[in-house]
């Protein structure tokens, strides 16, 4: 059976659902189908993250991340409040643990202010009043940070989309793509969809979907696993607010941080180790085909040459628990190995260029038949409603509809 639709969205995470919402809120007359290969919404990156609504502190002024994060975070907070999703403005501290990190802390403050973030420099005595167990020489207080449950946001979006008239299909992978006139035919287990426009929000598989749809992606996806620990209940009082280290400016990762969750638990992490499968949540999850592709890829060799020291450090910290504990103790010296236990992981879809550079901004690529989201790591969850509106504007333009309606 074959059926015509205006827009087919591949991927039922935050971005796919937010894009479908933006399309239908602006143009209720559109037929929109969301295809998700898993049995639940937000099964991967959207449901395996730190649940932080970020402020926009870290991102280069003028970048897509910077433009979307600050306003996107406020929009996400309002959405949670309106749809009874738990949300709390917590603020956070970014802590310099040595004087050598002070220039980086100052640069971060300057960048945050350029992005419209409320930032205040704190002395050791000032931040000790808020976090007496956290070590450091100075800190930034970042007011514009909040916590939520992004898996629950996905469920709220799906419920809203049902009311808006979207067709939502779980357990429905896109099996193949064929051009047919001005439409793209998408084969699924149940039927074929003939879509005027394809929106690729497939995350860890976004480059593969782009290639299968007949487009040549400008980047390739390298999966990085982020592993978490949890502080045991009796020691949760060591940290009151989200506490972050000063990040390494060479890497698009924020470093191992400590995050009190809305349910009272306290999570530590994530690190960033190369995953051996696109859904490689454990070391034993290995995809031989993906590994063979990566080993043949010159981009991986360039990446390895550039970042091998970082890679060795991250892999060692993953495999040897005392090294992970040592890094946490730089922020909270009182914590002991027995105070923490391992607590799951997530996999980040990180775009890499052909010359081995880690892409540090969102990448949204538009072709005559499709819009491909090829890099949407943090703060994509924070910015997902704004990103969805941005993608919807591209779709309206492709379809020759009024862009102002978006």
TrEMBL record:
User: Per the database record, which ranges form the FAD dependent oxidoreductase domain?
Assistant: 6-392
Superkingdom is Bacteria
Q: Has UniProt tagged this entry with the keyword Oxidoreductase? A: yes
In its UniProt record, a GO molecular function of this protein is: oxidoreductase activity
Residues in coiled coil: none
Cofactor dependency: FAD
- EC number(s) on file: 1.1.3.-
- InterPro entries reported for this sequence: FAD-dep_OxRdtase (IPR006076), FAD/NAD-bd_sf (IPR036188)
Keyword Transferase on entry:
no
Assigned keywords, A-Z: FAD, Flavoprotein, Oxidoreductase
What is the similarity comment for this entry? Belongs to the L2HGDH family.
Cited NCBIfam families: PRK11728.1
* Protein name according to UniProt: L-2-hydroxyglutarate oxidase
Print the organism lineage. Answer: Bacteria, Bacillati, Actinomycetota, Actinomycetes, Kitasatosporales
């Amino acid at each position: 059976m074959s059926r015509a639709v205006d827009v087919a969205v591949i991927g039922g995470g935050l971005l796919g659902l937010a894009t479908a919402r933006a399309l239908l809120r602006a143009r209720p007359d559109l037929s929109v189908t969301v295809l998700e290969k898993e049995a639940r919404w937000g099964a991967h990156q959207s449901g395996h993250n730190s649940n932080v609504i970020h402020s926009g502190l870290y991102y280069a002024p003028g970048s897509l991340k910077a433009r979307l994060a600050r306003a996107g975070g406020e929009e996400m907070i309002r959405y949670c409040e309106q749809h009874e999703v738990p949300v709390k403005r917590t603020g956070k501290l970014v802590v310099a643990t040595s004087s050598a990190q002070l220039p980086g802390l100052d640069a971060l403050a300057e960048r945050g202010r350029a992005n419209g973030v409320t930032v205040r420099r704190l002395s050791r005595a000032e931040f000790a009043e808020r976090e007496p167990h956290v070590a450091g020489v100075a800190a930034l207080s970042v007011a514009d940070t909040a916590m939520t449950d992004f898996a629950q946001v996905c469920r709220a979006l799906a419920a809203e989309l049902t009311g808006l008239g979207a067709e939502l299909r779980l357990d429905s992978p896109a099996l193949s793509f064929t051009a047919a006139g001005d439409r793209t035919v998408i084969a699924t287990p149940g039927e074929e969809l003939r879509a005027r426009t394809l929106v690729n929000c497939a995350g860890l598989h976004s480059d593969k979907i782009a290639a299968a749809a007949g487009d040549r992606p400008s980047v390739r996806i390298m999966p990085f696993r982020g592993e978490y620990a949890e502080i045991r209940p009796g020691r949760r009082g060591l940290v009151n607010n989200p506490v972050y280290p000063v990040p390494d400016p060479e890497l698009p990762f924020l470093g191992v941080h400590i995050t009190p969750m809305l349910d009272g638990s306290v999570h530590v992490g994530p690190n960033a180790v190369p995953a051996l499968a696109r859904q490689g949540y454990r070391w034993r999850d290995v995809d031989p085909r993906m590994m063979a592709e990566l080993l043949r890829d010159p981009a991986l060799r360039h990446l390895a040459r550039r970042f091998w020291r970082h890679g060795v450090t991250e892999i060692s910290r993953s495999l040897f628990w005392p090294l992970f504990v040592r890094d946490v103790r730089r922020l909270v010296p009182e914590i002991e190995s027995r105070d923490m236990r391992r607590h799951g992981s997530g996999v980040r879809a990180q775009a890499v260029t052909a010359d081995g550079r880690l892409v540090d901004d969102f990448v949204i690529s538009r072709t005559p038949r499709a819009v491909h989201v090829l890099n949407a790591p943090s703060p994509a969850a924070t910015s997902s409603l704004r990103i969805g509106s941005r993608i919807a504007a591209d779709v309206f333009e492709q379809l020759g509809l009024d862009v102002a309606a978006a």
